[in-house]
Protein 1
Amino acid sequence: MQLSTRHLLGIKDLTQEDISLILSTAEQFKEVLQRPVKKVPSLRDVTIVNLFYENSTRTRFSFELAEKRLSADTINFAASTSSAAKGETLLDTVRNILSMKVDMVVMRHSASGAPHFLSQHVPAAIINAGDGINEHPTQALLDAFSIKESTGGLEGKKIAIIGDIMHSRVAQSNVYLLNKMGAKVTVCGPPTLIPKYAAEAWGVEVNYNLKETLEWCDVANVLRIQLERQNQPLFSSLREYRISYGINRQLLDSLQKEIVIMHPGPINRGVELDSDVADSKQAIILQQVENGVAVRMAVLYLLSGRN
């Protein structure tokens, strides 16, 4: 089986069959990662450039490790230490890289739509590792993989996405994926951090009450406040935010059931999650990190055309 697209620009472009294929392929690669020798020759002689115009720790390391596990040749590019810092355009940078016979580009950029622009101008397969406030498709895929692993499936599951929905590409990609796979989605946060069009455009429920949302859901995917993307104050203070929307042990213990806690990282401890929640057995945050490598291996492998 093959994906219906030659790039991974967003979840919006994937079919239900594409998502299922990526998740089932990731299961096979997760088995590989449990072996004493964690490397396979699947992408030998494939050259991949990691093109990061925006700071990243988890995503960049996860892609680099996935590429190494697949035996690919990799080039790591950071805009701050490249000719981009001297004013070179994105297209010139990529054309120079492609002249070195690169097969795939993993790209993170602060401008929404940058990977889409690139896919129209270069022959390499493009993988979006996060573009502005638009999408972060591999994060949504690893979140879905983690939910499936923890709860047994996606269809009919009640998933709450809590926090800064307005500025989160993770929220948007998760909503698209979960809707396509038959899950029920509620977004929760302060009214100023949830787009007014969310319910109608995304087909989700909107709830401003954290306790009610947690009582409803099976899984809570908690997002951080993205202060770096906000050009004006949208709530009074982090202390006030924590009082209304922070998840602590006392709140979880007051629920009538046990729910799964997720977070794409980095966590602002003591704001959206207290440490005794983030480090509890209900939290699958480190499993998400582990699953990220398997999911990104699956994406790279399927887009390489080697399958």
Note: The CA atoms of residues 133 and 167 lie 6 Å apart.
Protein 2
Amino acid sequence: MLDNTDKIILQALQRNSRVSNADLARAAELSPSATLTRVRRLEEQGYIDQYATKLNRQKMNYDLLCFVSVGLQRHEAVQVAEFDAAIQEIPEVLECYHLTGDDDYLLKVVAKNTADLEHFLIHVLTPIRGVARIRTSVVLSEIKVSSALPIV
């Protein structure tokens, strides 16, 4: 169970995972050693999955961000497992979700330009066994982007 101090630590780490232990200790009103002990406990208990660096997509020349809906021909376990495994190997796919409803999967994909997107759709995604349909939406602007969970 999380107490208020744990929540303060988690909120601070979500804002900036590179915050110094001294600054984290000040925010939590703890000693640096007590803060480090709490952070390690939160990691061990699985509250903290990982620390990551988010690169600037445009600086890395990925000008397009797209959402691609995929429908499979069949929903057999083997076909689903094959699709899941194939997607794991495609670096342009940043996120992949298995869905209920009209579409089977929703992919968050980056591409350098429209030619790169076309190559991805025709030569990378379509040949995956079992893919029946693909619908692509190109993001015009990002209104809110966050990976921070609400901590209450």
Note: Helices lie at 4-15, 21-28, 32-44, 77-88, 114-125.
Protein 3
Amino acid sequence: MEEKLVSVILPAYNSAKYIEYTLKSLQNQTYKNIEIIVINDCSQDNTIEIVKKIAEKDSRIKIYENKKNQGLAYTTNKGIKLSSGEYIVQADHDDLSLQNRIEVCYKYLEINKETAGVSGRVKHIDSKTLTPLTKDERDAVVKSDYEEVNCEAVWGGIISNPTIMYRKSITENIPECYNVTYRVSADMDFFEKTLSHGAKWVCLDNILIEYRRHRSNTSRILVKEKVVEKQKVLKETLKRFMPEVSKEEVELHVKLACRLDTFNKNEQKNIQAWFIKLIEHNKKNNFFNHEKWLKVLAVNYRYACALSNIYTPFQGYKMFHSIQELIPYLAKDKKYFYEWQKRFFRALSWKIEGKK
């Protein structure tokens, strides 16, 4: 059977430090029928020279340049329009793809025709790592199915943009896939658009890329912008699930989902009422598989309880088992409180760092 063309979109801006290693990880894929669309967004270093040198020996690499710096969302949209493949793979200029990343996703999508796209796990690496793991030896293993992905979207989503592969056909009815007004959360907005059009995504348990974490990561620099943009997308997602919702409820939900703040005493009371309303609304409307919805709610309620416990000792513990329907999905021991509190302080440190 003839292998279908897969288009890899690789936006590049001041990428000289890592672009060679990123490209090598894509060139060495076990799935060979690919085109690598590199779009230079007016880099001020020698990114384009490095790419051109590599492209001389690999005709699969196609180079384009923006006339002026346009940003990641615009450049990604351009890559989608330029792509010729039936499938599209996203790639960040500083990440490393495992050798069978594309093969694993391709085989899964070819078998599961109803699935629009897949995401996967990442392994975090530092600035010194230049060679990826050889590959994740397993065939595709689903970690979160469509129902779970859709449930998670109400809380910000679990699809990892640097790992995705999807059918180009899902972009045909979306005029602007990545919103150019968003600097950080255009990917989250893209996923919401596709979900609202009925696209089915799944998350695989397979490691697909090695994600490079460093101080120049956009998500770490633009923390404030990320929260503002995430709020806008979450409001749209919540309204899709629950059209009739008050402004106060939207604000509380967004604060819960963004996970960067604690809650005052009045908010702590409203949190319990809000989660009960979310449970009852789904019971009545069958928007999600109810058991999976309860599992997702339990994770987020555990987080809310943990943050309520930071500045109001024991309040979170009182809240923890106050909603009967969530009790079967909540862990019984206290270690989860400490885990969520640790996550909060880590996120808060990024927030402070981003303001500098």
Note: The chain is about 45% helix and 15% strand.
Protein 4
Amino acid sequence: MKTEDTSTLDQLSSEQELSHTDKMIGIITAPKETFVNIAKFPPKTKDWFLPVLVLCVVIALTQILVMTNPDIAYQAKQKQLEAIQKNFDEAVASGRMTQAQADEQIGNIEERMASGGAITYVFQTIGIFIFVFVFFFILCGIYFLLSKFALKGNGVYASALVADGLVSYIAMIQIILAAILAFAFGRLMSDVSVASLTGTDKSTIIGWLLAKIDPFSIWAYSVLGIGLAKMFKSQSMGKYIIMVFGLWLVGGLLVWFIAKAVPFLSFLNM
């Protein structure tokens, strides 16, 4: 029997489907009740496509705005050049090119960076959209397979798309706050983790560990676990939350080792 103080969101979850705006707010204020409502209806493309699209726009705009700071722009350029230099050093060491060829290539790259202008931002934005959507589809595929077959959930691929897509609204808050802090500290910040706040090098194991101490990431992955549990009709949220955090930590550690072993991918540990 329902009590008289049942929330409006609880009432809506049993009566009618929430609007996308209500879902966006509910993900932040009442994720469990919001996903209970969403799971009662067929997954909607709008519920994952719109937030991921807006996330791409937010990432692109914040990167462009942050790069208007000359100090931050210089730091970003130096980090890119350092990663490229490592690749050329490895190529020289292995005999695939001479030192003179490597120096010439570095010089050409520096010239292109200096004369990039607006076209650089265009290609950067296109790259962001492609990378975010491809990564999103692959990651949701992993969530779907684990939820469906490992945890025996009752859902479809679109169920994972909606759960992960809506969590993008939390990621947007993190990205905007990171951009504000980047301006405040005058240095590159990709998140609000302890590693970013203290300026610890994320390419070290200590830096990797500190990068995982991020309240927004922990919040987002907790909500994602709840979302997957409800979208796959499970009464146990705990095992889905454990699955999401396990994948985040184990997958992140694997990426860290790969980036350390392959200089070309060193940007993944920035």
Note: The two ends are 53 Å apart (CA to CA).
